Amino acid sequence: MDEPVADEPGGSLAGTPRPGMREYGRYAAIEFLTWLPTGLMLAPMVLLMSARGLDIAEVGMVGAAYSVTIVVLELPTGGLADVLGRRPVLAASAVVSVAGLVMMALAHSVWPFLVASVLKGVARALSSGPAQAWYVDSLHARYGPAADLKPGLAAGNVAGAAALAVGTLAGGLLPLAVRRDPLAAPVWAGAGAALVLLVAVLVLMREPVRARRGPGRAAARLAEVVRDVPVTIVAGIRLGLADRVLGRLLLLAAGAGVMLNGIEMLTPGRLGALTGEAETGGAAYAFVTFAGFAANALGSSLAPPVARLLRGSVRAAASATVVTAAAVAALAASTALRGAAGIVATAAIYVLLFTALAVASLLRSELLHQRVAADRRATVMSVDSLQLQFGGTLSSLCLVPLSGVAGVGPVWALTAVVVLASALLYVRLPVGPAPRHPQ
């Protein structure tokens, strides 16, 4: 086994050719495999439930079960990786993901779909963070705390986005090539990809030696993590109430969750109606979603120049939020179109929507980080994530069932109003660090 460069006499990070290549190559591979199952099942998921007899309210309930599971487990599972190790937690996520996807592929009524959704939520919560923590641990152990983390973190982000894009395309096109139970084929493929992830985690993720904890100490630490969950949530809420600016920034995440869930849950059915068949609707949704992922990357790169052009992150984020609302309204109006015109319009609107959303999201994150001190950043990030899931849950339980009564267009119009109203949270929003918060 190679010795860490940082420990060699006279060694230095600067003298090491391309330090961290092995680690971040493995990290990128694991990130790709972590997100590939999600990409594969994304296009056919709603269409599969509809084809097997679930109405739109039941589809919304299944989506809500996923979001609620993540809300409940997001914080305690984050501590598991510190207690049990990165590799076992991510391996457990892969096993649960396989179980959830197999259950989903076999489900023919609402209750099995609910169980599958809960299992997928557990897998998602378990996979949130261990791979990145393992990469940082490994690089620090091999090259020391001064090691440059950026190349590997960037490679991981690119790999995850690529997995979602490739997986969504493959998941949308695969039903066209399968005759028997075509909509379930991408879900079975996702289960297979999760199995590959399990093998990759066991083979590639060799954890650096850390201070060993005895069973009693590990159990005590786990109990401490579980006890800290309500404390963390309450602390985040208190912080948001004490700092009105921070509270407004966090509330924006809930509005984004409402919008994203409403778009993701209702677009597949809309495209299925346009093409006349669930399988072709899934393929159309795959291409539309692929365009959205590409637009998201574009928007992230445009955020800095947009902020400079509009003379500030607050103005730029507010403007991007208004454009996002306009795009959702255009999506609502596009429901009047039929056939190929409706599909092309949806794809074009997705590009505008996700470009603007990426700009707003990146700049909101910057404002959030500026407002929070380092010792409270993890708490606020956890609450921010919970806000996004809360918005998704609200959408699943209220807006998605409403579409079965009022139609998709009116629900998207209502969603556009929610997004536009959220832009008002930027009005007269101060920038910079907050005054000292009360303890």
Give the topology.
Blueprint: H1 21-42, H2 45-51, H3 56-84, H4 86-106, H5 110-127, H6 130-143, H7 150-177, H8 185-204, H9 215-242, H10 244-275, H11 278-309, H12 313-333, H13 339-371, H14 377-406, H15 408-423
Helix pairs in contact: 1-6, 1-7, 1-8, 3-4, 3-5, 3-9, 3-14, 4-5, 4-6, 4-8, 7-8, 7-11, 9-10, 9-14, 10-11, 10-13, 10-14, 10-15, 11-12, 11-13, 12-13, 12-15, 14-15
What does this structure look like?
By secondary structure, the protein is mainly α. It has two domains: 18-210, Up-down Bundle (Growth Hormone, Chain: A); 243-432, MFS general substrate transporter like domains (Growth Hormone, Chain: A, Up-down Bundle). 80% of the residues lie in helices and 0% in strands. It is built from 15 helices and no strands. The protein has helices spanning 21-42, 45-51, 56-84, 86-106, 110-127, 130-143, 150-177, 185-204, 215-242, 244-275, 278-309, 313-333, 339-371, 377-406, 408-423. Helix 3 (56-84) runs antiparallel to helix 14 and helix 9 packs across helix 14 (377-406). The longest helix is centred in the C-terminal third of the chain and has 33 residues, at 339-371. It is globular and about 60 Å long. The termini are far apart. The relative contact order is 0.13.
